[in-house]
Amino acid sequence: MPPTDRIRDHAGQGATTVAAHRARRRLRADQARQLADLLRRQLLSGGFPTGTLPHESTLAGEYRASRNTVRQVLDLLRAEGLVERQPGVGTVVVAQKYPHGLDRLMGLAETLREHGQVTNEVRTVGPAPAPAPVAERLHVPPGTDVLYIERLRRLGGLPLSLDLTYIPLDVGTALLGADLENTDVFRLLETITGQPLGHAEITLEAVTADAHSAAVLEAPRGAAVLMLERLTHLADGRPVDLEFIRFRGDRITMSGLLHRSL
Q1: Is the dihedral of CA 206, 211, 216, 219 positive or negative?
Q2: Residue 204 has pLDDT above 90, yes or no
């Protein structure tokens, strides 16, 4: 075989080897993501009651994965702040996410009452002109004063969410003297209006924490937060509460029960 042909043949074999290596890496990364999803669910649902994960070899055998894949999985979970490696102990669970249901209209304190006390740091409260998107959603003329409330909400002393709330002023005025630090706005609205809340329209998306939100929530700047936009109506259909809630993504998980209908 001429030298030039041998060079081409060798180069071709090298390219094949590199492609195969990249394919193996992609496969391992895919397997790691799949296994991380399974272990994350177990972590968050109390699947490891001792607080310690099984040894890497045990996980590898149980899930038919390589040790390298398991190590990659644990690195992913460690980056999420869910586990830590402790010398002489192993991989331990270090964080807990709290469940927030999406199939019932409840305030945060009502939702998380089994997990501890929710307290509110009222950062801002008072009348403010309604921006056009707020006025449209609350069915008030643009520029009309509404009650604006900004609260940092904590569970067990740890920052959980930053809530920005807009309420029509004819209802919101009565909230100015209310105990906003220890009472859900939902409960106060029902007391003030004399009727129950009816339904809410919600939108949930992941957004990047801006500098202000990150500082208030004590989260890394640029961290992902869950943004819940919720427009709540009274039982008679009137929109009465528009909220933009930023949840720390590492401390909350959203869940619900859905029924299929065509």
Answers
A1: positive
A2: yes
Round to whole Å and give the CA distance between 169 and 141: 12
In this prediction, residues 34-45 reach a mean pLDDT of 85
* Residues 186 and 232 sit within 8 Å (Cβ to Cβ): yes
Q: Enumerate residues 6+ apart whose C-beta is below 8 A from 84.
A: 78, 91, 92, 94
Mean pLDDT on 70-75: 90
Structure tokens belonging to residue 77 = 């979970």
DSSP 3-state of 191: helix
Task: Please enumerate in sequence order all residues whose Cβ is within 8 A of that of 101, keeping only pairs 6 or more positions apart, or say none.
Answer: 111, 254, 255, 256
The identity of residue 106, as a single letter, is M
Q: What is the pLDDT of residue 25?
A: 65
The burial class, CB within 10 Å (0-12 / 13-18 / 19+), for 54 is middle
| Tokens matching residue 129 | 């002109």
The end-to-end CA distance of the chain, in Å, is 68
User: Which pair of structure tokens corresponds to residue 226?
Assistant: 């869950």
- Measure CA 175 to chain center: 28
Angle at 136 between CA 143 and CA 124, to 5 degrees: 55
State phi, psi for 59 to the nearest 5 degrees: -65, -40
Count, residues in the chain: 262
pLDDT at 30 over 70: yes
Q: Quote the CA–CA distance of 22 and 15 in Å, as a whole number.
A: 11
Of these ranges, 47-56, 176-185, 207-216, 227-236, the one predicted with the greatest mean pLDDT is 227-236
Residue 7 to residue 87: CA distance in whole angstroms: 50
- Considering the entire predicted model, what is its pTM? 0.76
Spatial distance between the Cα atoms of 85 and 78, rounded to a whole number of angstroms:
8
Contact 231, 242 (CB under 8 A): yes
